[in-house]
Amino acid sequence: MAFSFGGGGASTAGLAAPGFGTTTTAAPSAGFGFGATGTGGLFSHTQNKGFGFSSSFGTGATTSTGLGTSLGTGLGTGLGFGGFNTQQQISGGLFGQLAQAPVQSNQLINTASALSAPTLLGDERDAIFAKWNQLQAFWGTGKGYFNNSIPPVDFTQENPFCRFKAVGFSCIPGSKDEDGLVILAFNRKEDDIRNLQQQLVEALHKVLGGNQTLTVNVEGVKALPDNQTEVLIYVVERSPNGTSKRIPATTLFNYIEQANIKNQLLQLGVVRTLTRTELSPAQLKQLLQNPPAGVDPIIWEQAKVDNPDAENLIPVPMVGFKELLRRLKIQEQMTKQHQTRMDIISEDISELQKNQATTVAKIAQYRRKLMDLSHRVLQVLIKQEIQRKSGYAIQVDEEHLRVQLDTIQSELNAPTQFKGRLNELMSQIRMQNHFGAARSEERYSVDADLLREIKQHLKQQQEGLSHLISVVKDDVEDIKLIEHGLHDSVHTRGGSFS
Fold first, then answer.
1. What tens digit of pLDDT does each residue of 127-177 get?
2. 20 to 30 A Cα–Cα from 155, which one of 83, 191, 289, 366?
3. In sequence order, what are the beta bridge partners of 87?
4. Cβ-based burial of 175 (10 A; exposed 0-12, middle 13-18, buried ≥19)
5. List of residues 6+ apart from 43 with CB closer than 8 A
6. Model pTM?
7. Which of 243, 357, 317 has the alpha carbon at shortest distance from 33?
């Protein structure tokens, strides 16, 4: 299957900055929707603090700017990020909460009526409808009918009665808005993205207007579940005086979220875009104080208490099996990446151990070589000193050295001193060697079955020898009788002849 980013030939005429005094309305993106957004300056000076979601905290907020400057260079001319004297109205709230209190109150009243007291038929069958609505609310799907004149209630997984909810923990983003990091999730495999990374950069540059002062850079590529790939990019703007700076992440994100730009990114295979900028302390405090929609405040408070690392982790709701499955796949993907990294580290450690063993052997070799060279140098110095001192009388220091050496020699040769002790130690060593040699004589062990067979064979041989001895004895007795008979017959014949 051919891999093509496409969309490169799209017209950029529609990318120019909007005119002065125009009005732009932006709806919050899907998701949990925590962040703070405003406009102003050349690149709208937008601040989006959150996990890549562009809706604001609290109720709707409207901000406007009226900078009377010209478009200038860079993104102001090539991309048209927002516009000057524009008005941007953003409505939404934390985790999609409704901004109007009466509407929310009516929604809760209708939900309570559908779950407890529906009035559809006016008989005992309304209790069956109530139980059915409760089941749908627990499951988080379906419509709850409770009154013939009022539309049914849509049960979603965000409703407070849905049972398939949990709270997990995610890392707090550490990148700043000035870093300009934006994540593009492609519906492509990692190998395809890496093989065509240069074509991807060129295609993204065309989508951004093809301005020569802009450069698209890829910070990293990471595989995601379901054959998707996450590409981390940032855009650098070069000014005419030679300086360069990164486009803020929220500015770039708001630009690529425009309808025409988003369609071009869809042609490239981008399924979602988001930023991961760090949260300010005020935003983090407001996020933790306000439970998400449909999450029990008690569970939310318990999640904050159970946070294993409050400095680096933040609780996030998991609603429904799809979200649980998504996190499970991401966890498996991260586990595979960690295992791959561990295998690489293990191979590196093995290689380092081999190098260490080789180095230790070389050090021992060089140490022996150094000792040999030291002895050779000492011998050379001795010969040189002998030649240098040849013909000179013994000096005073040399005489003192000779006396010390003679003293040491006499102490070593004294019978009761070191020599006697050395002789005693040598005799003990010889005795130990003799006893060790005697103890180290070879001893054989025979298997029990083989030993039994040997005994049986020797017994049979013994019995055979005994039988043979008895036969020999009988034969000897017979021979004696024969000799005695022959001797008697000889005497009888001699007497008759005489």
1. 998 999 999 988 888 898 888 888 898 888 888 888 888 888 888 888 888
2. 289
3. 23, 64
4. middle
5. 75, 76, 81, 82, 247, 248, 251
6. 0.48
7. 317
